[in-house]
Each structure stands twice: as C-alpha cells, then as structure tokens.
C-alpha cells in the first residue's frame, strides 16, 4: 500500500494537468502551419518575413490587421481568416519566444 | 509500443489504471519526449518533413529512419519552370544531408513489403527494418493499366508524364527543345483527383511562354478529362485567352482513352489527336507501397486515414501522408499540404509515443503558387480545421481564396515559398 500513495499523487497531478490543457503543444502545432512559407519556427530562409523573436503584440497586431483588411496583402488576408483570435494569440506568443538567430534546432 | 515492454514492478498498476494512464506515467518519467523507433518511407514534401519534425519535437527521443529510393529530393513545384527553360534541374534538387543534424538516419533503399503484424518492413538491399510506428509518404503511382498503349516501358520512354520531377522533367524539356517551330505540344489531364490540381494549367502556361518567346508558331493543346479547369479557373481562363491567345487551345471533357505511342497520338472518345510532343499525365492512385500493404483504400485508390493522427483507419501504427491519402473535402493533393499532413502526424506521433493523446484540434492550411510566365504568379490558399462532428478537417468558411490577377510580387513570393518549404523539410 505504501507504494501506491506517491503514484496516486502523480496520477492526480497528471489528470489536473490534462484538464488544464488538452494539448500542451497547441501553440507549437499551430505555429508550424506557418513554417512552409516563413521558415521552421519562423526563421525565414529568405524572401519572407522573419517571425521568430518578433514581439508578440506586433505579430498579433499584424495578423489582425491582415484579417480585417487594414493591412494590404497578397495572401495573408485570406489565410489569417482561417484562424480564431485564440489561435492567432497562441501563434504570436510562440514566435515571440523563439530566438531569431542560430540553427534550426 | 516497445517502450512499454519493460515495466518491471510498475506493471501491476497497468490493469488498474489502463494502458494510456500507465503510458502517461511513463511519458512523464521520460520528460514527455516520446521514445521508440519511427521509420518514414518516402523523402518528399510529406516524408522528409515528418522525419525532421518527429525528431525535432521529440528532442531526439524518438529514433527516426528515413527510407528513400532516390539519392536526392527533386521538387515537383518549380519543375514547370525547368520545362520552360527558366530553371535548371539542379535548382530544384536538394540532398538529404541536412537531416543528419537532427539525428535522422537516411537510408537509400526500396521498400519491398510491410508486415504490419510484426511491425517490420523489408528493404531491397538493407534487409528487415523494425518499427514502432511507420509513416508512409509514397506519393502517387500511375494507373497505366487504364491506357493499354502506354502500358510498356518502351512506350513510357517516348510518351512522358514528367509528373514526378527528375529525369522525366529533363527528358520532356529535351523533347520541347527538339520540336521544330510550328509544332504542337499536347498535354492530357486526368479526371480529378490527381497530384497538384493547378499543375497542368501552369504547365500549359509555361510551355506556351517558352513557345511565345522562342518558337512563336507553335501551339499548346490542353486535353482535359474534366468538365472545366479544376483550379484557379477564372485566372487560368483569362491567361489562356489573353496572354496566350492563338497559342493555347483548351479542350474540356476530352478524356484520354488510349495512346498510340509510336505515332504520338492521343486517342479520345470521338477523336484522335496527333502531336509533335505528347505529354500524358495518367490517372493516379496511392503509391505502390501504400496501395499493396493491406491498408484500407477508398475507391481502390487512396488510403483512408484518421484526421487526428493521419493513422490508417484499418492498420495500427501506420500513418500515411500526402498525395496517397483520400483527402478531406476540398483538400488538394499538394506538396504544401503533404508538409502540413506531416506536422499533424509528427505532433500526434510524438504525443502517442509519450503516452499522451493526440491533439483534438488539428489545423492544416494550403498555399499553391502557379507561374503563368517567368515572372507572374497566381495563388490559391485555404485553411482546414478539424471538425469533431464529421471527424474530418473541413475548409474554414470565409478563409482562403485566389489572387486578383497574375502579378510579379507573387512571382517573388512563389520562389521564396519554394526556398522556405524546401528548408522546412530538409534543413
């Protein structure tokens, strides 16, 4: 019986963590949908805007301006409409936390 | 999963808590990295991306082996510029050495068979390779059995598809170069779905661009099995009728029934069309290894998958990506989409190998740039989000769209897209 007590504690902790966030990697996964054009983790390989390390507020303002049509775009006005406010917030937060320089690790 | 075989004394709670809770405990102990061996078959837009992202997102915890038959990746996107003489094959060819820094083992070999029960694949040269999870990204193979006159190696050497970039791209370029001015290039398009919906129309434009600048008396004849242009219809129609007036002739509802290879003649239902260069894009299905491994297929052609994991609906521990799958509604078969499939699968596989459930809200998006000449480009874009009611990723209403008109700015973005997606999959 003594062995079960700590395991039950771990389990309770895990279950509460699971209740808080069904998918702890949601921001990373959503941001990865941008990487085809903007480079892995937003580190552009050239010719597209670098997203890595940009301030979250700036990224979010850009995305929302694309979505509203306030910021002229060739394609981002159409793509940004596919994401909810919450999703855009997660994406902007993810890229803001990435170091812009260095290898793709 | 192999990491669960060594429970030792912890095994006793497996029955009480269930396998997933036990696996969650294990995953926690392993810092949530995920473990095991994933074998990826096919190093294209889907497979190479999957290999990289599984390794990267598991922090190297999951061992990844990529099996690819070719020595280097050759991109289908941008290959129509090679046909037009605007790019060289070397511009669209990239080696796999960039994947080494992620700890990925790249094996150049051919997969002969999959044993899903034993979780082993058989290689032509390298013997047997065991996996915990298998990712198949084999692209398409051609249904030559529907075209008896083209169902031989000799005929296929003369009548090219160039729908897989590489030697065929170079060979078709040579045929176009050798064609005298005043000749006819005919391109046949199969019924949708096929790889790259706007690709044939881009090809018609790029060959017409080459003719207009170098062989102005020559013609492009598009024989389309579909009712109408499949992708970017308004934009391509305008380009055909204005920019390439007198060069491109577009014929819808012109399904190819057979080929007279010796006479370079396309045989339609009521007509025969002789060309100087005949370019046949045959009907397609999931690549051979996926089609013959016992996975459930839709219409006998495309692998049915679960959209939370890209897992086969019939066969555990096998995930399938890219052009080989039966797509969700309005989803194109494209390199960009294959790259997105790969990330969806990678996220799910890393979670599953750590004993965590896959994300319940996957999202994928597509962008496709088509060149109408050397500089001007048109795009189509879409976003697709998981819908629990249908268990499919569905197009997000109000999102996506096409270019207003061909433009040079998107010409630059089209090339930058290629550079970035190649880097996203291979470096």
UniProtKB/TrEMBL annotation, chain A:
- Which is one Pfam family of this protein? Cytochrom_C
Keywords, ordered alphabetically: Electron transport, Heme, Iron, Metal-binding, Signal, Transport
Q: Which domain of life is it from?
A: Bacteria
State one molecular function term (GO). Answer: electron transfer activity
Query: Where does the signal peptide begin and end?
Result: 1-21
Q: Which PROSITE patterns match?
A: CYTC (PS51007)
- Which residue range or ranges hold the Cytochrome c domain? 17-99
Among InterPro entries, the record links this protein to: Cyt_c-like_dom, Cyt_c-like_dom_sf, Cytochrome_c_Oxidase_Subunit
What PANTHER family does the record tag this protein with?
CBB3-TYPE CYTOCHROME C OXIDASE SUBUNIT FIXP, CYTOCHROME C4
The protein in question is named Cytochrome c, class I
From TrEMBL, chain B:
| KW Flavoprotein (keyword) present | yes
Q: Which InterPro entries match?
A: FAD/NAD-bd_sf (IPR036188), FAD/NAD-binding_dom (IPR023753), FAD/NAD-linked_Rdtase_dimer_sf (IPR016156), FCSD_central (IPR049386), FlavoCytC_S_DH_flav-bd (IPR015323), FlavoCytC_S_DH_flav-bd_sf (IPR037092), SQRD (IPR052541), TAT_signal (IPR006311)
| UniProtKB keywords | FAD, Flavoprotein
Q: Which organism is it from?
A: Methyloversatilis universalis (strain ATCC BAA-1314 / DSM 25237 / JCM 13912 / CCUG 52030 / FAM5)
> Do you know which Pfam families this protein is assigned to?
FCSD-flav_bind, FCSD_central, Pyr_redox_2
* Protein name per the record: Sulfide dehydrogenase
Q: What sequence ranges are listed for the domain FAD/NAD(P)-binding?
A: 37-153
Which top-level group of life is the source organism from?
A: Bacteria
SUPFAM superfamilies, per this entry?
FAD/NAD(P)-binding domain, FAD/NAD-linked reductases, dimerisation (C-terminal) domain
Report domain Sulfide dehydrogenase [flavocytochrome c] flavoprotein chain central positions. 169-282
GO terms (molecular function) for this protein are: flavin adenine dinucleotide binding; oxidoreductase activity
Which residue numbers delimit the Flavocytochrome c sulphide dehydrogenase flavin-binding domain? 361-426
> What PANTHER family does this protein map onto?
FAD-DEPENDENT PYRIDINE NUCLEOTIDE-DISULPHIDE OXIDOREDUCTASE, PTHR43755
């Amino acid at each position: 019986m003594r062995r079960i007590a700590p395991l039950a504690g771990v389990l309770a902790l895990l279950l509460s963590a699971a209740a808080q966030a069904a998918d702890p990697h949601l921001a990373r996964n959503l941001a990865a949908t941008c990487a085809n054009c903007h480079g892995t983790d937003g580190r552009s390989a050239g010719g597209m805007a670098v997203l890595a390390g940009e301030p979250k507020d700036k990224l979010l303002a850009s995305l929302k301006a694309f979505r509203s049509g306030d910021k002229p775009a060739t394609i981002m006005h159409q793509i940004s409409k596919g994401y909810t406010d919450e999703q855009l917030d997660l994406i902007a937060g993810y890229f803001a936390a990435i170091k812009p320089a260095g290898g793709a690790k | 999963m192999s990491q669960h075989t060594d429970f030792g004394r912890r095994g006793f709670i497996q029955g009480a808590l269930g396998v997933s809770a036990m696996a969650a405990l294990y995953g926690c102990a392993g810092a949530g990295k995920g473990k095991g061996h994933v074998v990826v078959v096919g190093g294209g837009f889907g497979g190479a991306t999957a290999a990289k992202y599984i390794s990267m997102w598991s922090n190297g915890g999951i061992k990844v082996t990529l099996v690819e038959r070719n020595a280097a990746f050759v991109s289908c996107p941008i290959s129509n510029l090679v046909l037009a003489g605007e790019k060289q094959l070397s511009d669209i060819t990239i080696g796999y050495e960039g994947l080494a820094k992620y700890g990925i083992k790249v094996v150049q070999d051919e997969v002969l068979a999959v044993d899903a029960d034993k979780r082993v694949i058989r290689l032509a040269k390298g013997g047997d390779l065991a996996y915990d999870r298998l990712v198949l990204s084999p692209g398409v193979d051609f249904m030559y059995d529907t075209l008896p006159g083209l169902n031989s190696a000799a005929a296929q050497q003369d009548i090219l598809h160039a729908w897989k970039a590489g030697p065929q791209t170079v060979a078709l370029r040579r045929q176009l170069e050798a064609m005298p001015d005043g000749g006819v290039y005919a391109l046949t398009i199969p019924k949708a779905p096929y790889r790259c919906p706007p690709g044939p129309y881009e090809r018609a434009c790029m060959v017409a661009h080459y003719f207009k600048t170098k062989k102005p008396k020559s013609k492009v004849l598009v024989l389309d099995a579909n009712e109408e242009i499949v992708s970017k219809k308004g934009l391509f129609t305008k380009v055909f009728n204005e920019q390439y007036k007198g060069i491109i002739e577009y014929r819808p509802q012109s399904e190819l029934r057979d080929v007279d290879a010796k006479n370079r003649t396309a045989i339609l239902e009521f007509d025969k069309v002789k060309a100087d260069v005949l370019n046949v894009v045959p009907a397609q299905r999931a690549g051979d290894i996926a089609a013959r491994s016992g996975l459930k297929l839709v219409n006998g052609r495309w692998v049915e998958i679960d959209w939370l994991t890209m897992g086969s609906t019939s066969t555990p521990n096998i995930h399938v990506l890219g052009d080989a799958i039966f797509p969700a509604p309005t989803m194109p078969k494209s390199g960009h989409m294959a790259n997105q499939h790969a990330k969806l699968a990678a996220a799910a596989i890393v979670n599953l190998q750590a004993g965590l459930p896959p994300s319940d809200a996957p999202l994928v998006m597509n962008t496709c740039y088509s060149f109408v000449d050397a500089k001007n480009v048109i795009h189509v874009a879409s976003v697709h989000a998981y819908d629990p009611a249908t268990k499919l990723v569905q197009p997000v209403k109000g999102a996506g769209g096409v270019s207003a008109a061909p433009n040079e700015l998107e010409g630059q973005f089209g090339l930058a897209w290629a550079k970035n997606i190649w880097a996203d999959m291979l470096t």
